[in-house]
Amino acid sequence: MTAKFVTESIRGRLLLAPALRDRLASRLSATLAVTQPTKVVRRVTLVMCSLILDGASLQTLELSGALGAKGVAVTVICPRIDPEEGFLRLRLPAEQVARVVRPSTPGTSAHRGSMLDWTREAISDSEPDVVLFYGLAWLPAAVDHTRKRVGVVQVAHHEYLELHLPALAQESDPVDAVVCVSDSLRRALVRAGVNPAICHTIWNGIAADRVMAVAERGTVRSDWGFSDDEFVVGYLGRLVRPKGVDLLLHLLEQPLHPALRFVVIGGGAAEGRLRRQIAHLGLERRVLLSEARADVGSVYGALDAVIHPSRTEGLPLTVVEAMHAGVPIVARPSGGVPEVLEDGVSGLLAYTPAEFAEKVGLLASSPGLRTGLAYEAAAFARRWLTAEVMAERYIDVLEGVVESLTPRGPRLLV
């Protein structure tokens, strides 16, 4: 654990007089600075199953940049070429996407065998100290054929992994650590049989400048067809059932505050149904389905609130971004959401369409509440949900993995 992270934890959590607390934190920080182990993680390879415009892909690339800023040489490997890959450039600098190693042979992504062969070779070429896997399906085959003494870490972004990790963990002990993006997910995996000693919780974090507005608020709202005196609520995410799109549909059927307008940014299987529902309810003037913009910060800057109705989550990127952007949030308390949003303090939590409608209406009529929630959420995000804090926590785990391999002799994964 890094000296800075321990020091900040002490300052944030110890119930002591401020002067005493700061002296204790400074003394411990100085001690840790002297006793920090020699850096053992120099090269890290991140393996992704796909590269699409979703939270997991964006967070993986965010992590690669944050680790790189800490002096770690990072290679990102993605064996599948996806049609949506180009959309990532809407959310990340082109040079960051270009750092991803992808197949150059046409058709590689169409055949499982060729993908595995390519992945094994790419991992071997990158010569990592640790491999982080972001796609469970690749782990057994890729690890078994990686002729390299490395640590192996599985990153769990979502609850569906609990169905597979127990069996995986029992086969030749291929995983040295599991990083979960929320404590809720960690508990779910432990209940499913994963060894709690190898499970670590590391919240997602972003660079704050990712959500800085570029365009003027009025300009973006004008592009959407909304005026400054309307209360604009945003939904950002895939339009699929696990993300609560059916709840969004039923929300539009509720009695709504007259000033409410909705912007839905995302695509997916339920888009057609959503469009039909909007037309059926005669809400074309109040609900807009919009394409993603390159300047996501300007989107948040033009919103008055964000809703996140997802049923299952790890720690949603939309919530983290909205917190940093200072936009009040109404969210379903799934996954790690209640770990970072305190109901009535830094956000509002809701379960049913009626509750969402009620709480969004409350925000529309309560400027003071909006300001207070946004302030508390942004303060929490700046302290705990940054790319720097995330990278420090990952480095702690990765160094522990590599150091644990040394005493018994590094394992040869063949």
Explained architecture:
Helices cover 43% and strands 14% of the residues. The protein is α/β, with parallel strands linked by helices. The protein has 2 domains: 3-20 and 38-207 and 387-413, Rossmann fold (3-Layer(aba) Sandwich); 208-384, Glycogen Phosphorylase B (Rossmann fold, 3-Layer(aba) Sandwich), CATH 3.40.50.2000. Strand 2, helix 4 and strand 3 form a beta-alpha-beta unit. Helix 1 (3-13) runs antiparallel to helix 2 (18-35) and helix 9 (217-224) crosses helix 12. The radius of gyration is 22 Å and the shape is elongated.
Tertiary shape: elongated
What is the CATH topology of the largest domain?
A: Rossmann fold
- Widest β-sheet, arrangement of strands: 3-2-1-4-6-7-8
Distance between the termini: 31 Å
Question: Structural class given helices, strands, pairing?
Answer: alpha/beta
Put simply, the count of helices is 17
Round the mean pLDDT to the nearest integer and report it: 79
* Number of E-type strands: 15
Share of helix among residues? 40-55%
How does CATH name the architecture of the largest domain? 3-Layer(aba) Sandwich
* Beta fraction: 5-15%
Give Rg in angstroms. 22 Å
CATH homologous superfamily designation of the largest domain: Glycogen Phosphorylase B
**Under the CATH scheme, which class of the largest domain?**
Alpha Beta
Question: Mind describing the biggest β-sheet?
Answer: 7 strands, parallel
Instruction: Domain count, please report it.
Output: 2
Low confidence ranges: 10-15, 30-38, 106-111, 408-414
